[in-house]
Amino acid sequence: MPGAVVFDMDGLLFDTEVLHRAAAQDAAAEHGCVLPDAVFLSLIGGSAVDNRARLLAHFGTGFGIDDFEACWSRHYAAHAAGGPALKRGVAELLTLLDALGLRRAIATSSSHEAVRRNLAAHGLAGRFDAVVARGDYARGKPAPDPFLRAAEQLGVAPGTCLALEDSPHGVRAAAAAGMTVVMVPDLVPACDADRRLCATVAEDLHAVVQLIAGCG
């Protein structure tokens, strides 16, 4: 039985990555260029600094990255106006953690405002004991900093935590923090390297419910 559970947010708790992909591609079109799916997928779960570097490597060093990111945010707000969908199994998993008395945190590359907005859209405000978001750590994923900070806020040793991630960058970060990792892939399927870092790869959070329930 884990001592605590640390969740990624985008693509794991909420179905936001498909909205971000549409928004990023809309922003690219508005700038008269194309954002290939492979480039977008390389951004998922990455730090803001690393992702800016990836975008500039694709678009060119003279590309107006600040304008592009602002445009991306504007298009995302339009795509997510009704709130992103909740991923399968979230409600059931949180109910199980409540029953077991297990503390839980979010460790995300997104902003605190994005976390608050997504949680509020589904009535989940207050269901997490800690939130670690952009600005709370020195280095983003795939560095372990977000997960180490989450364990610190929960008051538990990282090695006792179960980390739930959907992206390769997140899997690497959680594994580097010394946590037991379960990958629940969203847009990016698990590769052999991901599988070697994970205890298992789960189809969805319903499968994670079964895994944790089986630890009792």
UniProtKB/TrEMBL annotation:
InterPro entries referenced in this protein's UniProt entry, alphabetically: HAD-like_sf, HAD-SF_hydro_IA, HAD_sf, PGP-like_dom2
PANTHER family associated with the record? 2-DEOXYGLUCOSE-6-PHOSPHATE PHOSPHATASE 2, PSEUDOURIDINE-5'-PHOSPHATASE
NCBIfam families to which the protein is assigned, alphabetical: HAD-SF-IA-v3
Its name, as the record gives it, is: HAD family phosphatase
Please give the organism: Neoroseomonas terrae
